[in-house]
Structure formats: structure tokens, C-alpha cells
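pipeline/complex-builder :: batch 7 item 3
reading input block
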Amino acid sequence: MTDALERGRALIEKLNPDLEAVLAGRYDDLLPGFAESLVEWAYGRHYARPGLDLKTRQLCTIAALTALGGQTGPQLKINIEHTLATGANREEVIEAIWQMAVYGGLPAAINGLNAAREVFDELDAAA
Amino acid sequence: MTDALERGRALIEKLNPDLEAVLAGRYDDLLPGFAESLVEWAYGRHYARPGLDLKTRQLCTIAALTALGGQTGPQLKINIEHTLATGANREEVIEAIWQMAVYGGLPAAINGLNAAREVFDELDAAA
Amino acid sequence: MTDALERGRALIEKLNPDLEAVLAGRYDDLLPGFAESLVEWAYGRHYARPGLDLKTRQLCTIAALTALGGQTGPQLKINIEHTLATGANREEVIEAIWQMAVYGGLPAAINGLNAAREVFDELDAAA
Amino acid sequence: MTDALERGRALIEKLNPDLEAVLAGRYDDLLPGFAESLVEWAYGRHYARPGLDLKTRQLCTIAALTALGGQTGPQLKINIEHTLATGANREEVIEAIWQMAVYGGLPAAINGLNAAREVFDELDAAA
Amino acid sequence: MTDALERGRALIEKLNPDLEAVLAGRYDDLLPGFAESLVEWAYGRHYARPGLDLKTRQLCTIAALTALGGQTGPQLKINIEHTLATGANREEVIEAIWQMAVYGGLPAAINGLNAAREVFDELDAAA
Amino acid sequence: MTDALERGRALIEKLNPDLEAVLAGRYDDLLPGFAESLVEWAYGRHYARPGLDLKTRQLCTIAALTALGGQTGPQLKINIEHTLATGANREEVIEAIWQMAVYGGLPAAINGLNAAREVFDELDAAA
């Protein structure tokens, strides 16, 4: 196991312990090595880096996925959950999304708000 | 003067006191009301909101402008300066940019690193 | 109430009188001030400006939302309704969409045509 | 009939013989000439050109639609079918999609994998 | 010569008579048939269609190229010239650009204003 | 050294032997580990995979970078060089680019042709 993969696995253990298994179950038959490669790259080579705290990293991701819009709906929802798992509150998530109206336009921001609403409703229903 | 405009002006006073005058000098002949409208919307209606601290807001902007890529080069450079003005250090800026390789792809992240390098070099040359 | 907000409200009174209330009902709990801010910015600071007639403004919006694609489906449908409300006919809407095949590619244009079809069918069903 | 239209029709005869009729049935009432224009431009003026073999052209399309993401889901699925019709195997399709994680980011690549999965499942169900 | 090509050529005769020759000189050695294909598709199959007047078509193009940002700078400048050639005035061009702040974000709109400024300055210098 | 990193290094040895050193010299002071991480991810985890030949992978990259446009100019030029290094000829590169007019629109395709022209001219000047 590489260092980056190890660091990635240690990090998702805190954020979303089932993530690698879920991804492997969903994609590894189609693309051998997918889950491991994603954990190594996204979490081991990025989120686990020093120099910026994890909560801020997650809020940056929320902002970027909102601004990119369109193709990132499912990923935005997963990352809103991860962001709450780092200790951010709902208001911080909403503010990071709404600020993107300035940079990505109103449709992107509104779609981001809709995604957050869905996540919050699902969490409330599960509570 | 509206409340949102007033809040926006108070905020840029801290980040970049000449911003409204610079924008007015550059665009208001072409588009009357441009600078005021931008300050009201971007700073008064977004950055000045409660619920998320200004430094994190700026790092979110760095991330989103990096991920959007292409059309946002000049704005990324200005916002890197604003982000440093909120107390973020260079490493935090670089980390927010590089994380976008995961979401916007390598070209976007590399172009963001190039923009940061230019800002840092300009600041060092001016120091 | 600011001037821009007042101008925005006067304009949506003609296009879609319930818009601010609908938006407030949908988002203001999540994001206080959302509906007012949107009306002030989009309608008061843009659509209500002199220098370009409202129908052409709306057709420009149709074109841009089509070209941007992906993240703008719901907004495209609302703006097709607003465009018809300014006196544009269906053929003008379709032509503005199809022209975007040149600039945004065929998938964007075809998705735009699908959105228009849905709006027209809903209007016909309601007639 | 123009040369480009003729070349386009000859080519789709091999890839997807019903394509022009399906497109005409779906869009020509809304936009007279749509299907003919699409066949002439996309197939006659691009896919039918010499200089690059059809299978590679189709894999290039898969890659680009994956990277563009968001607005291209339905077109990606149709083009995965066309790509298999040129003799590409499923593994080649999956590899062309996954490579886009480097250039368009992970969300784009994952959405592309999901689209391929849907096409493969539909083909298997129809087999 | 096809009908669409003929219609396209008749239209650019009014907007920019040298366009096909300029494009052929620039790209036909690299890509035989480029200029003819572009005139047939963009002008013959889109701009020359009935159902929407040419000036509005051009303003729609300005809006979309602004919103798409990044990759469309040179094309935006050419189309601003074409739009003025249809009888639009500078204010209409500026308004179509600025409205895109709502849909594509501030960076896109500001880059569009910069492009318009360059075109206007070049026209004034040539006057 | 991880397996993926080793595979990536073996592959760039053929395509562009100086790549890791050039990237390290340019970015590793700003972002420790950058060059190694890029080689591991892009080349070890993607290009070096079985299932699709390297030349087709590179043509897919050309297509996607063209369609993404804007933010990918420098990367497109480097990848055109890599694609020629896999044995593709110039015509194949041009065709992969021009086909993107269908999916990403004319501006994206034209900008791609311009990038190819620059690469070819540089190669001819160096010959």
C-alpha cells in the first residue's frame, strides 16, 4: 500500500468510513482499481495534505462544485455531507454556495441551494 | 445609498480600499453604475453576509475561480490578493488551488498555480 | 427599499407577478434575503436597465442559458415563459436556441429544444 | 441533396440507420430542417471526413462528451452505442471515459461511467 | 453549391464580405473545406434562417459568447463587429454583455466588457 | 516508489522524458510533491492502463482539451506533441480537433486549430 493511499484511507475513515467499499462495489467491476485510485488521488494526494484545515478544504469543494454546476450534482450532495462531518454547520454550507452567484451566476447558485435542501431534508428525515 | 451598498463599501475598505474607484474609472463610462452595482452585489449582498468568516469566503472564491478556469484568470489574481489581505497565508492559497485538480481537472489546477505564482512574484518584487 | 429593488419589482410585476413570493417561499428560510437580493440584482440591476428592449434581453438570456447548458435547465424553462410574456413568439424562441448549436455545440442546442418543447406542451395543456 | 448530406446519410446507414428519421420525428415540427441539417453537419462534414478512422473518431467523442459533462448525458449514451457499432469493445469505452478524470475532474468521469453502465445494462437486457 | 452554402454566402456578403476568404486563407491548408463548411453551417444553416431578425440573432450570439467566456474571446470580438454591422448600437452591445453577469457570473461579464472596449477602441482608431 | 508512480515514469520516458523534471522545477517549490503526484495520477493511473492503446488515448485527450477550450490551451499544445510522439500524424490530430465543432461549438474547434498550427510551426522551425 502506498503512502498516499494509506493517508487517504486514514482520512476517509473519519469522513465517511464506507466510502471506498461503496465505490468499489459500484465501479470496480467496470474499472478495476477505481476505488483505490480515487482514494489515493482525491484523499491521499489532496485532502490529507497539510497547509489547509479539512473543514476549509471541504467548504472550498462545496464552492467549486456549485460554481461548476451541471455535472456535479451528485458529488455536491456527498460533499455537503462530508463538510458537515468536518464540523461545519448548515449556515456555513449555505453561505459558501450562495456566494457562488457572484462567480458562476444565479442558476449555479440556485441549483446548489436545491442540492443543500435535499441533503438537509434527508438528514432530518433520518434523524 | 442602500444598506447593501453601504455594507459592501465598508467591507472593501478593509480588503482593497481603491477597488470601487478603480472599477468606476475602468468601466463606468461604458456602463453607467457598473462599479456601484458590483460593490452592492458582490460585497454587500455576498461577502458581507454573516454566517461564514471572510477568510474562508475568500478561499472558497479561490477554489471556484480555479475550477472554473479559463475565463477567470484576472479575477483569480485579484482574489488571491484579497485572500492574503484577510490573513490567509500563501500555503493556504496554494492548497485551495491544488485541491481543484480533483474537481476541475489538472489543467485548471495548473493554471491556478501559475496565477498564484504571478501574484506572489509581483508581491515579492514590490516588497 | 432601494431604487434597484423598486425597479426590479416593477419589472417582474409585468413578467411574472408571483416571482418574488415564490422565490421567498422556496429559499428565504434557507437563506434570509434571497428573493429580495435576486430581484434587486437580476431585475433591478440588469433587466430594468435602459438601452436594450426587454424582449431582446429575454432572447439573449434564452441563448446564453442554452449555450451554458447542463446546469441551467430549470432556469431556461422559466425564462422561455418570461420571453413569451414579453411578446416574443415560439418561433423566435426556437431560433434563438438552435443558433446556439454553432457556439455551444449540438448537445447544448438539442437540450434547449427539449426544454422549449416541455414549456410549449405545458402551456398547451394549460390552455 | 448536397454532397455533405449524402456522405452523412451513407455513414449513419452503418452506425444507426434510423437516426435521421428519429430526429425528424422528434424535432422537425419545432424546427423545420433540423434532422437534415444535423446529418449534413455532424456526419457529412465531420465523421465522414478522411484522415481519422471512424472508431477513433467515436472514442474521441466519448472522451469529449465525458469531459464536457453535465449537458451531454443523453448524447453520451447515444454515442456509446455508436462507438460499439464501430467495433470498439466495452473496455475501450470505459478507458476513454476514465481517462477524462485527469482533464475534466472526477465528477465528470464518474458521471461518464454511470452513463456507460446504463448503456451496457440496457444492451444486456435487450440481448 | 448547396442551398445552405449559397444562403450563407449571401448573408456574409452583408455582414463581412471578406470572411470566407480570410478563413480559407487561415485554415484551409490545415483542414481542406474548413471555410466553406463554416459558412454553410453557421451562416447558411443558422443566421440565414427565417423566424428571428439578424440583429437579434447577433445580440443573442454576443450574450452567449460572453456567458461561455474563456474560450470565446476572439469570436466575441468578431461578433461584436458583425452585430454593429446589423445596425445595433454600442449601448445595445454593452447591455447584452452586462446582463450575462446574472447567468454566467461577474468574471464572464467583465471579460466581455473588456472585449467590447477593445473593439470600440479599434473602430475609433480606424475612424 | 509506488507501482502507479513507477508505471507513470516508465510511460513518460517514451513520450516526454524530461516531463517530471520540468514540472518539478516549475512547481515543486510552490507545492511539494506536485510533479510526482501528477506523474502517478495522470500517467500511472490513467495513460499506463491496459485496454486502450496509447495513441488513441492521446487523440481522446486532444479531443477533450479542444472541447473544454479556454482553460486548456497550454495543455492542448503539450498533448499535441505527446500525440505525435505516439505515432499519430498531423492530419489525425487536426481531424480530432475539428470534430469537436459538433460537440463544443465552433469557437472551441477554431481555438484548437490555432493551437495545432502553433505546435506544427514550432516543430517545423526546430526541424
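note: Chain A has a mean pLDDT of 89.
queue -> next item
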